[in-house]
């Protein structure tokens, strides 16, 4: 999402994030306020925006705090915001690496606070809160679609076990949006904006994470690691899905297909469900095999000699 793309993509991206994770909007607002502060408040407008964004982020945290999980996520958001902006200012790196560093600081800091204030049962308390929230949300879905009742218990168990991975995905999305907003707003941004989505990729060595996940699920003696493997699989599964989607966008761009056409097609596929069930595995497979086949580089062809 390059800087020249204008405001509308940022607005739509933030709206989509709010639709799927309304309680996590503080993960956008607080890092954005911290980034603006780290970039330097050179104009009165910058001060006003930073204060407004910080107040909004704190307001979201206060509004969404209902149980132990929400309180932990609030502390996590504050630590991640400080670590992300501090890393961008003091040890600049790629946004993905900065996000991983901030997530690590957030997880360690939140765990330390939980151990200090809640004791050794902190993780079990978080897990129970995640199960209870998932149960409440899925109960509403069952009331709308009673025939989906058979999926209720497996989905509650899955969301209860996979909530760290889901929080990690929310963090990646939120910090990407915060970085883009800061690149648009700050007078002197801490770094360049993210590149176009069609260029999205990450290290090929992450495919070993998928291999490790599969091994844990196949080998019975490693059953104790299944929860950790589930969370790693959720994160990497979504990342490879996005990588596959980026490949399709890149191929469509070289073929002259406009981006809005792909967007409409994706919306229709999501609404019809059945095409989505075919599209998601296909994109995921495309993203995984890009590790070895480098589809975009093959499409572009070898560089010409100068």
| SSE order, one letter for each helix or strand | HHHHHHHHHHHHH
Write down the overall geometry: globular
- The parts where pLDDT drops under 50 for at least 5 residues are 1-5, 302-306
Class from helix and strand fractions: mainly alpha
- What can be said about the biggest beta sheet? none
Record field, number of beta strands:
0
Q: What distinguishing features does this structure have?
A:
disordered N terminus; 13 helices; 76% helix; single chain; mainly alpha; disordered C terminus; 306 residues
Characterization of this structure:
- With 306 residues, the chain is an all-alpha fold.
- The chain has 13 helices and no strands.
- Helix 6 packs antiparallel against helix 7, helix 10 (226-254) packs across helix 12 and helix 11 packs across helix 12 (274-293).
- The longest helix is centred in the last third of the chain and has 29 residues, at 226-254.
- The radius of gyration is 21 Å and the shape is globular.
- Residues 1-5 and 302-306 have low confidence and may be disordered.
């Amino acid at each position: 999402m390059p800087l020249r793309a204008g405001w509308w993509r940022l607005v739509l991206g933030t709206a989509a994030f709010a639709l799927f994770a309304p309680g996590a909007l503080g993960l956008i607002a607080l890092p954005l306020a911290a980034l603006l502060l780290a970039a330097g408040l050179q104009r009165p407008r910058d001060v006003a925006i930073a204060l407004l964004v910080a107040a909004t982020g704190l307001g979201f945290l206060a509004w969404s705090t209902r149980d132990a999980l929400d309180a932990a996520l609030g502390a996590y958001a504050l630590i991640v915001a400080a670590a992300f902006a501090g890393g961008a200012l003091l040890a600049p790196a790629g946004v993905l690496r900065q996000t991983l560093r901030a997530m690590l600081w957030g997880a360690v800091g939140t765990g330390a606070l939980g151990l200090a204030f809640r004791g050794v049962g902190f993780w079990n308390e978080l897990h129970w809160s995640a199960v209870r929230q998932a149960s409440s949300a899925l109960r509403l879905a069952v009331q709308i679609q009673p025939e989906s009742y058979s999926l209720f218990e497996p989905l509650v168990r899955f969301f209860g076990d996979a909530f760290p991975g889901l929080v990690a995905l929310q963090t990646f999305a939120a910090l990407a949006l915060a970085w883009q907003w800061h690149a648009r707003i700050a007078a002197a941004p801490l770094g360049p904006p993210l590149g176009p989505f069609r260029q999205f990729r990450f290290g090929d060595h992450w495919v070993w994470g998928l291999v490790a996940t599969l091994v844990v699920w196949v080998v019975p003696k490693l059953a104790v690691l299944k929860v950790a493997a589930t969370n790693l699989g959720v994160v990497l599964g979504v990342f490879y899905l996005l990588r596959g989607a980026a490949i399709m966008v890149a191929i469509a761009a070289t073929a002259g297909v406009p981006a809005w056409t792909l967007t409409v097609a994706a919306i229709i596929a999501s609404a019809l469900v059945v095409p989505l069930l075919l599209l998601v595995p296909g994109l995921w497979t495309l993203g995984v095999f890009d590790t070895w086949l480098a589809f975009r580089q093959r499409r572009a062809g070898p560089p010409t000699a100068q």
